[in-house]
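Database export, one record per block. Field names are fixed; values are copied verbatim from the stored entry.
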Amino acid sequence: MISALLALAGALVYGAADFLGGLAAKRLRSIVVTAVTAFSGLVALVVVQPFIGGTWAPADLGWGVLAGGFGALAIVLLYACLAIGPMSILSPLTAVVSAIAPMLWGLLVDGETLSPVAYAGLAVALVAVVLVGFIPGEKVVRPSIRGLLMAVGAGIAIGGFLIVIDQTSGASGLVPLILSRSTTFLVAGIAVGVLALVAMRRGQRAASVLSPASGLGVTPTGHADLEHATATHPTPVPSVSRAWLLAAACGVVDAAANALTLLALRGGDLSIVSALTALYPAGTILLAAVVLRERVAGVQWAGLALALVAGGMLALG
C-alpha cells in the first residue's frame, strides 16, 4: 500500500513539474528549459544525497547513466511525435505505452505475481491514463505511421527509464538519479551548445537559441505540456526572468518526483508503480484548474476519478 501511495504521489508531483515546465517553455526554448531543469534537479539531488546516504557501486552508476540515456531519448522522440500530431492521440498513446512496457517486464521477466484485484486495478489505471491524457475538442486527424512509431518509441523509452532505475540496489540511495540527471544535463547542454554554434555561423547571436524556435508545446520532463494537457484557454506567457525561475523550480520538483518513484519501486512491484506513474497528467490538469482556472473536460474528470479507483485497487491488491 505504501508503495502504491508513493507512486501515485510521484505521478502528481511529475504533473506539477510539467505545470512549471510548461509555463517556462512558453518563453524559453524547450531544450534550454531541459538543460536548466536537469541542472537544478541535479543540484537538489546532490544537496540531499549526504543526508540520505548511499553507495557508489559501479553497477548502480552504470544503471544511472543508462537511465539518463533513456530519459534523453524519450524527450527527443516525444518532442518529435507531438510536433507531428495529432496530440489528442499520440500523447495518451505515449503514456499508455510507458505504463505497459514496464508492466510486461515486471510480470513476465521479473516474475511479479499480483492478486485479481491488482490485475483489475492495472486495467482501470490504463483506461484512466487514456481519459486523463485525452485532449477533447481537437480536430480528429489520423496519425501517420511515423508519428505512431515515435509515440510508441517515446513510451518505451520512458518505460525503459523505470525498468533501469528498478535494477538499482537499495543501498545506492539517490546515486542512480544523480548519474541520470548528469547524463541528461550533459546531453541537453551539448545540444544547446551546438545550436548556439549554428546560430553564430549564421550570423545570429548565441543568445538567440534561448527563445522558442517553434510551436512545440512539450515540457522538458518528457510529458505533454500544460496547454495541451488541459486543452482549454491559452496559458499566460511569463517574463524571461520568471521563466528561468520556473524552469529551475521545475527541475527541483521533477527530481522530487524521481525520488518518490524510486522509493516506490524499491518497496513495491514495477508493474504497479509504472501504471500509477503514467497518471502524471492528473497533476498538471489539477494545478491548471486551481491556479490558472482552466476548464477541465468531463472526460478528464472521469479519468481522474478512475485514477483514484485504480490507485485504491492497486494499493489493496
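Remark 1: Confidence is low (pLDDT under 50) at residues 224-233.
Remark 2: The CA atoms of residues 32 and 210 lie 6 Å apart.
End of record.
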